[in-house]
Every structure is written in C-alpha cells, then in structure tokens.
Predict the structure.
Amino acid sequence: MADDSTGKVVTWDLEAVKPPLGHNPQVPWRSHASLAAGGAPEGDKVTDKCRVIVMRFGANANAMGNYHIHHHSDNLYYMLQGTMTAIVGGTRFIVKAGEAIFMPRDVPHATGNFGDEDVYLWEIYNPSTARPEGNDSHPVELPADIPDSKTNQENGVRIWDLKKLNPEFDPNKKDPWRISRILAGGGNPAAPDQVTDKTEVVLQRFAANANTFGSYHVHHESDNIWLVLEGTLSSIIGGKRYETKAGEVIFMPADVPHATGNFTGEEMRAFEIYAPSTWVTGSHDSFPAEMPAEFAKH
C-alpha cells in the first residue's frame, strides 16, 4: 500500500478508542472501530500487512453476528471486558475477560453476547482481510446443531487465559530479567504449538527494576504489536523512546529497528503478535541493528 503513513509507530489507548453503540441501526448492539486499516478504506494506513480493530457488543444483546469465513486471514481476539460467545467450525466457545481466542483461517465463525455485561475486545486479522480481489469475508450457513466445546481446542481454536500463563524467569539466560512463552508458533521451531504458520503469538514477562533494554534488532517483513497487560513497556523504535502502559497497544512497523525493556518498579506483562510470523519464510526474520548512541548505555 503506497501511503506516507506506513512505517510509523502508533500507540492506542484501548479505553479511549472504545466505540459507541447504536451507530448501525440494523445491528444496534454491535459496533467496531478500525485502528490499523491493513489496506481497508477505514482506519489508520499504518500497515498493509494486518488489520487491527476493537469491537464492542452491548449487554443483554442475546444475539450473534453473521456466520462467515476468511479463507486467508487468521483471526485473534483479546477480551478486555465481558464474556463472549463464539461459534467456530460449528462448535460453541465461551471466552472471558483476560482471555485470548485464536480462530484459524478457512474455519467459519460468528461472535456475540448473551451476558448482562458489555463485551469489549481487541482484534487482529493476519493477513488483513482487505485483499486486491475484495474483502476476504464470506457468508456461511450456520449449522443446526451446535455442541459446546469440551477442550477449547476443537477446529484449530486456541483459548489462552493470559492471567494464568506466567512463565518463570531463567537466571541462566542472557537476559534473566525477561522471559517469554510462545503460544502459537507461526513456524518457530522452538514453539510446541504450530496451530498456524502465519501468526506468531507470544506472552512476554519483564521483571521489575530491570532498568535495561534487550537487543536492538529489526524484522524486515513482520509488523510487531504489543498489548500491555500489566506495568509499563519501554521501547526504542527507530531511534525514539516510547512508554506504553497497561491497557495500551503499541504498533512497531516492519523494517524499523526496535528494542524493549522495563524501567519501573513494577513487573511488565504483554501479549505480543508478529504479523506475519518472523518464521513465515522458513528462516528467522530478526537481525541485529546498531543501538543509537544516546541509548547504548542502557
């Protein structure tokens, strides 16, 4: 996508971008706001690789959206508020605040709210559903019989409770103050779960009082997106420093070097997405870069 705004860093405060309900009279209980357009006509033209939105479902909607399929795009939600009902591949899943759900491409799905609390969620399509031949979203007939999930993994679905996943720090690592857990490998050979070859999903944990950055590096093809769950993420991106707090998302574009760390007395935890995966070509798209001199002492 030829646009002067591609390649820039963007931070979103998820509470500030929550969309109002009722703007669509046909579906008054459901609304969304587009954050990164991914080639679509609405939203920030920050990238053509993935599409990022937030969605809100009103309380007591007792309704589902349309059952549909994306043939090319993985779909990933992080639940900020409420309890969402999802039908994926003809199976019903329940997803609660603090959980993330991965829905693979080429499997039909629908989402809705049958609770007495608003549902609010952050969502990414990787790659974007906006394609040269048109929008990669196609209606599918809803099955008559919809059983409840027994494992939270039927039909390629994954549900992760991010509050409970807390990898332990390893004092023998090069950077003992940081640890990660790969949830979806995207081809990364170190990942136990290769549910998708397109999207790499990681839970990051940085110790309090680390007072340092990790290595400065660049991904030439992969956008990098961090949703901060706890604490404050410090980043150097393209030679500028950013601070991203809990409840905010920072978008780090492909081909711009960056490093991340923690300079506070509080632990930092974040949900990190590579879109596409840094392993999508079969080799690792991560290369060292020279840290700007003013930050090198860290």
User: Anything to note?
Assistant: The CA atoms of residues 105 and 148 lie 21 Å apart. The longest strand covers residues 74-81.
